[in-house]
Every structure is written in structure tokens, then in C-alpha cells.
């Protein structure tokens, strides 16, 4: 087949740069355009010196100057609001949006959590929620794919099989999560300076993090009823990586062994999601730089409860890598193409 012509919008951000890193070695992709509003006119190696040896990358242009008539698929890595405003006008290209703009199905929910009137509410029903392992059958025909947020990716991969099997209760789910600082983006903010985050850990978005409605939307669909989830994320002093531990109530008659069996059955043939051996705790060092998710389930000392843990790289499986996986599935390619690199360690 002809090589897929890709444009990356927001290539000067962490997610956009990681998308470029992955696409550079993809055997069926040609990067024809890179866009970044504030750094338009620069070479990619000026915005990101680690690309200095990557010849052939186009110079950064403003999003409105991308030659969309020469593009097959756009990876939108712009901030929420800005992303939908640009992508809504595109009709002849396929879209993989990595912002939050098309993840929520209800414009009123989007307004409540993001404080904006949705720029393109007429596209919400069309968007496919692109959690790759659960969206495969819908991706080949999709024009617009909303790639999940990093926290929802980890939480949903851990809990969806259990919710669908009726092994856990929809009530009393509480998620503790940590993420590296890259998850906060590349914008200059005092709270993300080295002296502020080094040797420190702190919760943020306490009681009202924007990924809550996304998690609840998808878990609610799995349970077949409205769900409210406790979710508390924490910023920790590492560049990339994400770990979640979910405390869940067992459904009547269910055991931790049943939960493990359900996860094993669901992910036994998955290329990127792996159930660890009994008693092995997921760790971010197991997945750094890769598109992998590792998970496990443990008994809680509280009767009738279990703890489900999962680790991903927030920039890869939680963002750019999942977008490339979705791209592969959209175009009928092996979904591992361009994503075969093992984790980086140490």
C-alpha cells in the first residue's frame, strides 16, 4: 500500500514530539507536515534538539498553514478547545485527536468540566473513543477518533474486563494515581519548575480532575448504569510514567482469583497489555518509553475488596503510542507496527 501521509499538530509539545519520535521509524508512514503555533518557522531540531539527526522532517508551520489536501490523517496534539477549533473544519482527512475535545459524548458535560462551550458539538456523536483494545471493530471505518486520556487508559484497561464480567461492584471504586511531570504539558508554569517538583510529591485536581467524567462515562457503559468514581492523581518527580491503584468492591460471590482469571482471559493475546505473575506489582520502570501496559490484582486486607494496579508510560500508551496503534488499526496495518521497541531501562 502507499505510505500514509501524516500531519502532526502541536509538534512542539511533549505528546506531539513523542508522536514524531514513533512515526519516524514507522515503515508505512511519511510525515508531511508538523505544526506548532508559537514555534512556527523553526526546524523540528530547534524546538527539540534530540531530533537533530532525523533528516527530512518538515519545518514547523502554523496549524492553518498545513497543506491538508496532501494529508491522509491528522494527529491533533493541541490543547483542548484549540484542537476542536482547528479539526472541525477538516472534511477530507481522517483525524486522531489526542486532546480532550472529542472524548466526552455530551457537550454539557464538556462545558461543566472544561469551562468552554464545545467548538464542534455536532461531531461528538461521530467520534470513536479510541481505547485501542476495545475499539478495534470501529476503527477501520472511523473518520474521527478521540484518543483517551492517560489516566483513563490505565484505569479502564485495569477495570473494564472486571466491570463487563460483573465481578466488581459499580459503587465504591477509588483510584489513587501518580504521573510524571510531562503529563502536565510543556507550558511554563511555576508549579512545574524543577525546584517545585524535585524531591516532592503532591496531589492535584483533588475531587475534580478532568479525567473523572471520561472514566465514569466508559465504566458506566460497561456496568450499564451511572457510576461515580473516586479519583485522586498525584504529581511525582519523574519525567514520564504513570501508575494507578484502584480499590474495588467484589461483587457477591466473586473472588480475587476470579478477577485475575478474567484479566488473564481478556489480555492473553493482546500485544501490549500484560498481566504480571501472581504477587508481582506493576512499576513504571517496566514500561518506560514503550506502548505497554502491565497490570495485576491483589487481595485487600479489607474483606470483600481487591486492589487492581496498572502501569503505563503516559506519553506512549497513554497518548502518542496509543494514537499510532489506532492509526494502524484504522488503515488495516498490524497494530504493533512502529511500536515494537521494548521499554527503556534503566
Radius of gyration, Cα only, in angstroms?
20 Å
**Uncertain residue ranges:** none
Return the average pLDDT rounded to an integer. Answer: 95
User: How helix-rich are the residues, as a percent range?
Assistant: 25-40%
Written account of the structure:
Helices cover 26% and strands 20% of the residues. The protein has 346 residues and is an alpha/beta fold. The protein folds into 2 domains: 4-126, Rossmann fold (3-Layer(aba) Sandwich); 151-314, Dihydrodipicolinate Reductase, domain 2 (2-Layer Sandwich), CATH 3.30.360.10. The chain has a 7-stranded parallel beta sheet with strand order 3-2-1-4-5-7-6. Strands 9-10-8-11-14-13-12 form a 7-stranded mixed beta sheet. Helix 1 links the parallel strand 1 (4-9) and strand 2 (29-35). The chain is globular, with a radius of gyration of 20 Å. It starts with a strand and ends in a 16-residue tail after the last helix.
Amino acid at each position: 500500500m502507499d505510505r500514509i501521509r501524516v500531519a502532526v499538530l502541536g509538534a512542539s509539545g511533549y505528546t506531539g514530539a513523542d508522536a514524531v519520535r514513533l512515526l519516524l521509524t514507522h515503515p508505512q508512514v511519511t510525515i508531511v507536515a508538523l505544526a506548532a503555533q508559537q514555534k512556527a518557522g523553526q526546524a523540528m531540531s530547534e524546538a527539540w534538539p534530540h531530533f537533530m539527526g532525523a533528516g527530512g522532517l518538515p519545518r514547523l508551520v502554523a496549524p492553518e498553514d498545513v497543506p491538508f489536501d496532501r494529508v491522509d490523517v491528522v494527529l491533533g496534539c493541541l490543547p483542548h478547545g484549540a484542537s476542536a477549533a482547528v479539526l472541525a473544519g477538516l472534511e477530507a482527512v481522517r483525524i486522531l485527536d489526542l486532546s480532550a475535545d472529542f472524548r466526552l459524548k455530551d457537550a454539557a458535560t464538556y462545558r461543566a468540566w472544561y469551562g468552554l462551550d464545545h467548538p464542534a458539538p455536532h461531531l461528538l456523536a461521530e467520534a470513536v473513543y479510541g481505547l485501542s483494545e476495545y475499539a478495534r471493530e470501529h476503527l477501520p471505518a472511523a473518520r474521527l477518533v478521540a484518543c483517551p486520556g492517560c489516566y483513563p487508559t490505565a484505569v479502564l484497561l485495569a477495570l473494564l474486563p472486571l466491570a463487563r464480567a460483573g465481578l466488581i461492584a459499580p459503587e465504591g471504586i477509588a483510584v489513587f494515581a501518580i504521573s510524571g511531570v510531562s503529563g502536565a504539558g510543556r507550558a511554563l508554569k511555576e508549579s512545574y519548575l524543577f525546584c517545585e517538583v524535585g524531591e516532592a510529591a503532591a496531589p492535584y485536581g483533588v475531587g475534580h480532575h478532568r479525567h473523572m467524567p471520561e472514566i465514569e462515562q466508559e465504566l458506566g457503559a460497561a456496568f450499564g448504569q451511572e457510576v461515580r468514581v473516586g479519583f485522586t492523581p498525584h504529581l511525582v518527580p519523574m519525567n514520564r510514567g504513570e501508575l494507578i491503584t484502584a480499590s474495588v468492591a467484589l461483587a457477591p460471590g466473586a473472588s480475587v482469583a476470579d478477577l485475575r482469571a478474567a484479566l488473564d482471559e481478556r489480555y492473553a493475546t493482546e500485544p501490549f497489555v500484560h498481566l504480571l505473575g501472581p504477587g508481582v506489582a506493576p512499576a513504571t520502570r517496566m514500561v518506560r518509553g514503550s506502548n505497554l501496559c502491565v497490570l495485576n490484582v491483589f487481595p485487600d486486607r479489607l474483606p470483600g475488596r481487591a486492589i487492581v494496579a496498572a502501569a503505563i508510560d503516559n506519553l506512549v500508551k497513554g497518548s502518542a503510542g496509543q494514537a499510532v496503534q489506532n492509526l494502524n488499526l484504522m488503515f488495516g496495518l498490524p497494530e504493533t507496527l512502529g511500536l515494537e521497541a521494548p521499554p527503556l531501562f534503566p
